[in-house]
Amino acid sequence: MRLLNTHTIQLEEFFDKVPPYAILSHTWADEEVTFQDLEKPYHTAKVGYANIKETCRLARDDGYQYVWIDTCCIDKSSSAELSEAINSMFNWYKDASICYAYLADVSPTTTVPTEQCSPFGESRWFQRGWTLQELLASPQLVFYSSDWAPIASKNSLKELISQITNIDEAYLISQSKNIAVLLEKASIAERMSWASKRQTTRVEDIAYCLLGIFGLNMPLLYGEGKRAFLRLQEEIVRRFDDQSIFAWTSTIWDTADPEPLGFLADSPGCFAQSGHIIRHATYSSSSNFSITNKGLGITLRMLESALELNSYVLLQCQPRNAASSMVAVRLQKVSQNSINGS
């Protein structure tokens, strides 16, 4: 892991014993200082250098000799290093002593935000894909306004942040290093819903930014487009026995002329209405499903109706606070050995 010395503004590399460090969470803007820029004399003239300068100042004031900043601590010209960094990033935020969340579009204020419809609640920081894992993973996170004045801590704003993000407060108040264990209490559908309204610059990153939230590692293949999100779901199917991954609604659904769909979603946006889906109260872990070379293999209970051409299968998940309900997926047979879900 490469860290920036807050006194010398020089990078140092650590392998086994990583010292305590602060970490920055922010949204990228123009003229960020990269790994290569730090070796050049003009890097202090770039607009993005202010982020480095202020982060180091905050860290020094808090007693930390090192900080981690994504813009300059990763050599993005190396695909191998970038892949390792993205697969490690959730843990880097989890292991940081403190996270400074810089909201560049929030003007200084002397009052603590209380409304969802406020500059704080509408900040771009709450709309980007990468900042989701940074919000969840950081055990201690403090928000800062555009002039680097403190706004408040994540813990003190947990109720408001929950309203902004639709993330239950239980996942926002953890001060321990066991956030990964805590997140596993949320269903796959619920975790996907947290990213349903977030955006990334590159299509693939909407999948890669979720790796840590599901505790997964996956090779990065920039250029694969939406296939990245399908690969993420395939990895989830291999790792978890949680059928809520199939509890989603198409973002392009046409009730007049419905298009048959597969069992896996196209994007996190398909889970926008699935934040309330949990495992069924009588959940049985005996149901196997897997990804094979012919597609998804799964055994489910089927409901057939003489009045309809389609059949339905029941998933072992339910809406929260609806113990007598189950989620069903409508099926349409497309060949002798193949069906589509809709």
Secondary structure blueprint with pairings:
Layout (H helix, E strand, L loop, with lengths): L1 E4 L5 E3 L8 E4 L23 H13 L4 E3 L1 H4 L5 H17 L2 E5 L27 H8 L3 E4 L5 E4 L4 H8 L13 H5 L4 H7 L10 H4 L18 H13 L37 E3 L9 E4 L2 E4 L2 E4 L6 E5 L1 E3 L7 E9 L2 E4 L1
Parallel strand pairs: 3-4, 3-5, 5-6
Antiparallel strand pairs: 1-2, 1-4, 6-7, 8-13, 9-10, 11-12, 12-14, 14-15
Tell me what the structure shows.
Helix content is 23%, strand content 18%. With 342 residues, the protein is an alpha+beta fold. It folds into two domains: 178 residues, no CATH class; 157 residues, no CATH class. The strands form four sheets. Strands 2-1-4-3-5-6-7 form a seven-stranded mixed sheet. A four-stranded antiparallel sheet has the order 11-12-14-15, with no helix packed on it. α3 runs parallel beside α4. The model has no long low-confidence stretch (mean pLDDT 89).
Task: Produce a short descriptive summary.
This protein is 23% helix and 18% strand.
What fraction, in percent, of the residue positions are helical? Answer: 10-25%
From N to C, what is the helix and strand string?
Answer: EEEHEHHEHEEHHHHHEEEEEEEE
Radius of gyration: 22 Å
Q: Which class of secondary structure composition applies to the elements? A: alpha+beta
Tell me, what's the shape? globular
| Strand fraction | 15-25%
